[in-house]
Amino acid sequence: MSIKDLKQAIPDYAKDLRLNISSVMDEDLLTEQQRYGVFLASALAARNATVIAAARAEAEAHLSAEAIEAAKAAAAIMGMNNIYYRFLHLTSSGDYKSLPAKLRMNVIGKPGIEKVDFELYSLAVSAVNGCGMCVDSHEAVVRKAGLKPEQIQAAVRIAAVTHGVAQTLDGESALSA
Q1: CA–CA separation, 119 vs 70, rounded Å?
Q2: Cβ–Cβ under 8 Å, residues 150 and 104
């Protein structure tokens, strides 16, 4: 499945998503590795099989095996971290903030690709998963690494559109069940 196939799966009432997926994936502010890695990581975070299949096909056509693994790793590790750190952010008790997380996160230190790209994937997944602490943390790292606000916004736009498409397709599936 390609992005073209994915666009055809989007119902007419969500035609804005169809238009947006084309524009965000043609974004020239990001490198190919950043663009397709963010797409794959965001698709995995959004958890829709059709969107994941399209993202995987596009990733396989544009990314190295290492970048694909890094996108998958970002989705996996942020799936854990986003829950934990969102809890820390949302709880009114300060007791937990001083405790060590005791969660293994080795892939963040050695992602197998450029650190800035892995952090950008992690930022996109954190946006999809709604973890403000993680968004702030990864945004600071990519800014320090030299990414401009427009580049960061481009990655988050990919994540937002990917999530919107996944949510729409999930809704359609539920309506037809």
Answers
A1: 10
A2: no
The catalytic position among 68, 131, 142, 154 is 131
Question: Is 93 a known active-site residue?
Answer: no
Cα gap 58→45, rounded to integer Å: 16
- Annotated catalytic residue within 41, 54, 127, 134: 134
Render each residue's pLDDT in the chain as its tens digit; 177 residues: 899 999 999 999 999 999 999 999 998 999 999 999 999 999 999 999 999 999 999 999 999 999 999 999 999 999 999 999 999 999 999 899 899 999 898 888 899 999 999 999 999 999 999 999 999 999 999 999 999 999 999 999 999 999 999 999 999 999 998
Is 94 among the catalytic positions? Answer: no
The two counts, helices (H) then strands (E), for the chain are 9, 0
Domains plus CATH for the chain?
3-176 (1.20.1290.10)
